[in-house]
Amino acid sequence: MAFTGLSGKGIGRTILAAVVVTAVGFTWLHRDIFQHDHLQAFVIRNHAWISQNPSVPLLFVLAHVIVSLTFIPRSIIAVAAGLVWGLWWGSVIATLGCLAGASAGFLIARYLNDGLIKPGQLPGFGRLLARLEGGGWRAVTVLRLVPVMPHTPVNYAFGLTNIGFLPYCVGTILGSLPTTVFYADLGALGETTMTSQGQWHVPAAIGIFALGASLLLPQLPGFRARKN
Hints:
Elements: H1 8-29, H2 36-45, H3 47-52, H4 56-69, H5 74-113, H6 125-145, H7 151-159, H8 165-195, H9 201-216
Helix pairs in contact: 2-5, 4-5, 5-7, 5-8, 6-7, 6-8, 8-9
Protein backbone atom coordinates (compact mmCIF):
# COMPACT_ATOMS: atom_id res chain seq x y z
CA MET A 1 0.00 0.00 0.00
CA ALA A 2 1.17 3.53 -0.71
CA PHE A 3 0.71 4.65 2.93
CA THR A 4 2.35 1.60 4.57
CA GLY A 5 5.45 3.57 5.62
CA LEU A 6 3.52 6.59 6.88
CA SER A 7 2.42 7.09 10.45
CA GLY A 8 -0.88 8.71 11.33
CA LYS A 9 0.94 11.98 11.89
CA GLY A 10 2.70 11.63 8.54
CA ILE A 11 -0.63 11.14 6.79
CA GLY A 12 -2.02 14.17 8.63
CA ARG A 13 0.91 16.32 7.49
CA THR A 14 0.48 15.14 3.92
CA ILE A 15 -3.23 15.98 3.91
CA LEU A 16 -2.64 19.40 5.50
CA ALA A 17 0.09 20.23 2.98
CA ALA A 18 -2.23 19.23 0.12
CA VAL A 19 -5.02 21.42 1.54
CA VAL A 20 -2.70 24.44 1.85
CA VAL A 21 -1.31 24.00 -1.67
CA THR A 22 -4.83 23.61 -3.08
CA ALA A 23 -6.00 26.73 -1.21
CA VAL A 24 -3.05 28.73 -2.54
CA GLY A 25 -3.79 27.65 -6.11
CA PHE A 26 -7.52 28.31 -5.83
CA THR A 27 -7.03 31.72 -4.22
CA TRP A 28 -4.57 32.84 -6.86
CA LEU A 29 -6.91 31.73 -9.64
CA HIS A 30 -9.60 33.94 -8.09
CA ARG A 31 -7.34 36.67 -6.70
CA ASP A 32 -9.28 39.38 -8.55
CA ILE A 33 -11.90 39.35 -5.79
CA PHE A 34 -9.24 40.62 -3.39
CA GLN A 35 -8.49 43.69 -5.48
CA HIS A 36 -9.18 46.99 -3.73
CA ASP A 37 -11.83 48.10 -6.23
CA HIS A 38 -13.79 44.89 -5.80
CA LEU A 39 -13.60 45.01 -2.01
CA GLN A 40 -14.61 48.67 -1.93
CA ALA A 41 -17.58 48.02 -4.21
CA PHE A 42 -18.64 45.06 -2.05
CA VAL A 43 -18.43 47.15 1.13
CA ILE A 44 -20.45 50.02 -0.37
CA ARG A 45 -23.08 47.65 -1.76
CA ASN A 46 -23.50 45.76 1.52
CA HIS A 47 -22.70 48.50 4.03
CA ALA A 48 -25.98 48.17 5.95
CA TRP A 49 -25.65 44.39 6.35
CA ILE A 50 -21.96 44.64 7.31
CA SER A 51 -22.50 47.34 9.93
CA GLN A 52 -25.44 45.51 11.58
CA ASN A 53 -24.21 41.91 11.49
CA PRO A 54 -22.24 41.03 14.66
CA SER A 55 -20.55 38.06 12.96
CA VAL A 56 -18.77 40.22 10.36
CA PRO A 57 -15.63 40.88 12.50
CA LEU A 58 -15.20 37.13 12.99
CA LEU A 59 -15.68 36.54 9.25
CA PHE A 60 -13.12 39.25 8.57
CA VAL A 61 -10.57 37.58 10.86
CA LEU A 62 -11.21 34.28 9.04
CA ALA A 63 -10.69 36.04 5.70
CA HIS A 64 -7.44 37.48 7.03
CA VAL A 65 -6.26 33.96 7.92
CA ILE A 66 -7.02 32.75 4.38
CA VAL A 67 -5.21 35.74 2.90
CA SER A 68 -2.20 35.19 5.16
CA LEU A 69 -1.92 31.52 4.21
CA THR A 70 -2.26 32.01 0.46
CA PHE A 71 0.26 34.77 -0.32
CA ILE A 72 -2.34 37.49 -0.94
CA PRO A 73 -0.97 40.82 0.44
CA ARG A 74 -2.52 41.48 3.84
CA SER A 75 -2.48 45.23 3.11
CA ILE A 76 -5.60 44.74 0.98
CA ILE A 77 -7.62 43.27 3.81
CA ALA A 78 -6.31 45.84 6.32
CA VAL A 79 -7.45 48.67 4.03
CA ALA A 80 -10.86 46.99 3.86
CA ALA A 81 -11.01 46.96 7.69
CA GLY A 82 -10.48 50.71 7.76
CA LEU A 83 -13.13 51.17 5.10
CA VAL A 84 -15.69 49.17 7.08
CA TRP A 85 -14.97 50.16 10.70
CA GLY A 86 -12.94 53.34 10.45
CA LEU A 87 -9.42 53.98 11.73
CA TRP A 88 -9.66 52.88 15.36
CA TRP A 89 -11.82 49.76 15.26
CA GLY A 90 -10.46 48.94 11.83
CA SER A 91 -6.92 48.93 13.26
CA VAL A 92 -7.97 46.72 16.18
CA ILE A 93 -9.77 44.16 14.02
CA ALA A 94 -7.04 44.19 11.37
CA THR A 95 -4.41 43.60 14.07
CA LEU A 96 -6.38 40.64 15.42
CA GLY A 97 -6.72 39.27 11.90
CA CYS A 98 -3.02 39.78 11.27
CA LEU A 99 -2.13 37.91 14.46
CA ALA A 100 -4.55 35.08 13.64
CA GLY A 101 -3.18 34.72 10.11
CA ALA A 102 0.45 34.92 11.23
CA SER A 103 -0.19 32.34 13.96
CA ALA A 104 -1.87 29.97 11.51
CA GLY A 105 1.06 30.11 9.09
CA PHE A 106 3.57 29.66 11.91
CA LEU A 107 1.79 26.66 13.43
CA ILE A 108 1.18 24.98 10.08
CA ALA A 109 4.85 25.31 9.11
CA ARG A 110 5.95 23.98 12.50
CA TYR A 111 3.55 21.03 12.30
CA LEU A 112 4.53 20.15 8.74
CA ASN A 113 8.24 20.48 9.46
CA ASP A 114 8.35 18.62 12.79
CA GLY A 115 12.14 18.49 12.80
CA LEU A 116 12.54 17.55 9.13
CA ILE A 117 14.35 20.81 8.40
CA LYS A 118 16.95 22.10 10.86
CA PRO A 119 17.64 25.79 10.13
CA GLY A 120 21.30 25.61 11.15
CA GLN A 121 22.00 22.91 8.58
CA LEU A 122 20.73 24.87 5.57
CA PRO A 123 23.36 26.86 3.66
CA GLY A 124 22.82 30.62 3.75
CA PHE A 125 19.11 30.66 4.47
CA GLY A 126 19.56 28.31 7.40
CA ARG A 127 22.06 30.62 9.09
CA LEU A 128 19.65 33.50 8.69
CA LEU A 129 16.84 31.51 10.31
CA ALA A 130 19.14 30.50 13.14
CA ARG A 131 19.99 34.16 13.82
CA LEU A 132 16.33 35.09 13.79
CA GLU A 133 15.65 32.30 16.24
CA GLY A 134 18.35 33.61 18.55
CA GLY A 135 16.90 37.11 18.43
CA GLY A 136 13.59 36.04 19.98
CA TRP A 137 10.69 38.49 19.92
CA ARG A 138 13.03 41.34 18.97
CA ALA A 139 13.94 39.59 15.72
CA VAL A 140 10.27 39.06 14.92
CA THR A 141 9.51 42.72 15.67
CA VAL A 142 12.31 44.05 13.50
CA LEU A 143 11.41 41.82 10.57
CA ARG A 144 7.73 42.80 10.80
CA LEU A 145 8.69 46.47 10.87
CA VAL A 146 10.25 46.22 7.41
CA PRO A 147 7.36 47.13 5.06
CA VAL A 148 8.78 45.30 2.05
CA MET A 149 8.98 41.92 3.79
CA PRO A 150 6.07 39.76 2.54
CA HIS A 151 3.78 38.60 5.33
CA THR A 152 3.14 34.99 4.31
CA PRO A 153 6.73 33.78 3.70
CA VAL A 154 7.83 35.34 7.00
CA ASN A 155 5.09 33.43 8.85
CA TYR A 156 6.16 30.13 7.34
CA ALA A 157 9.87 30.87 7.82
CA PHE A 158 9.50 31.50 11.55
CA GLY A 159 7.61 28.22 11.82
CA LEU A 160 10.79 26.44 10.75
CA THR A 161 12.72 27.85 13.70
CA ASN A 162 12.54 26.88 17.36
CA ILE A 163 11.40 30.30 18.51
CA GLY A 164 8.61 30.12 21.08
CA PHE A 165 5.03 30.77 20.05
CA LEU A 166 4.49 33.53 22.65
CA PRO A 167 7.62 35.55 21.66
CA TYR A 168 6.53 35.13 18.04
CA CYS A 169 3.07 36.54 18.80
CA VAL A 170 4.48 39.46 20.82
CA GLY A 171 6.92 40.38 18.06
CA THR A 172 4.22 40.03 15.42
CA ILE A 173 1.87 42.44 17.21
CA LEU A 174 4.58 45.03 17.92
CA GLY A 175 6.10 44.85 14.45
CA SER A 176 2.87 44.74 12.45
CA LEU A 177 1.00 47.47 14.31
CA PRO A 178 2.50 50.54 12.53
CA THR A 179 1.76 49.33 9.00
CA THR A 180 -1.61 47.92 10.06
CA VAL A 181 -2.64 51.35 11.36
CA PHE A 182 -1.37 52.93 8.16
CA TYR A 183 -3.38 50.59 5.91
CA ALA A 184 -6.51 50.93 8.06
CA ASP A 185 -6.03 54.68 7.83
CA LEU A 186 -6.11 54.48 4.03
CA GLY A 187 -9.42 52.66 4.24
CA ALA A 188 -10.78 55.16 6.76
CA LEU A 189 -9.78 58.02 4.46
CA GLY A 190 -11.67 56.31 1.66
CA GLU A 191 -14.79 56.12 3.80
CA THR A 192 -14.41 59.76 4.88
CA THR A 193 -14.04 60.85 1.27
CA MET A 194 -17.11 58.89 0.14
CA THR A 195 -19.34 60.15 2.96
CA SER A 196 -17.79 63.66 3.26
CA GLN A 197 -17.68 63.23 7.04
CA GLY A 198 -14.98 63.91 9.60
CA GLN A 199 -11.60 65.59 9.41
CA TRP A 200 -9.40 63.77 6.93
CA HIS A 201 -6.13 65.22 8.24
CA VAL A 202 -6.34 63.39 11.61
CA PRO A 203 -6.28 59.80 10.28
CA ALA A 204 -3.84 60.90 7.58
CA ALA A 205 -1.39 62.19 10.19
CA ILE A 206 -1.71 58.99 12.22
CA GLY A 207 -1.16 56.84 9.14
CA ILE A 208 1.92 58.80 8.07
CA PHE A 209 3.33 58.54 11.61
CA ALA A 210 2.74 54.77 11.64
CA LEU A 211 4.48 54.30 8.30
CA GLY A 212 7.40 56.44 9.45
CA ALA A 213 7.72 54.36 12.60
CA SER A 214 7.85 51.17 10.56
CA LEU A 215 10.73 52.61 8.57
CA LEU A 216 12.73 54.18 11.40
CA LEU A 217 12.34 51.79 14.34
CA PRO A 218 14.42 48.97 12.78
CA GLN A 219 17.36 51.40 12.71
CA LEU A 220 17.33 51.90 16.49
CA PRO A 221 19.89 49.78 18.40
CA GLY A 222 17.32 48.65 20.94
CA PHE A 223 15.19 47.04 18.22
CA ARG A 224 17.95 45.16 16.44
CA ALA A 225 17.88 41.41 16.64
CA ARG A 226 20.51 39.92 18.87
CA LYS A 227 21.33 36.47 20.13
CA ASN A 228 20.20 35.51 23.59
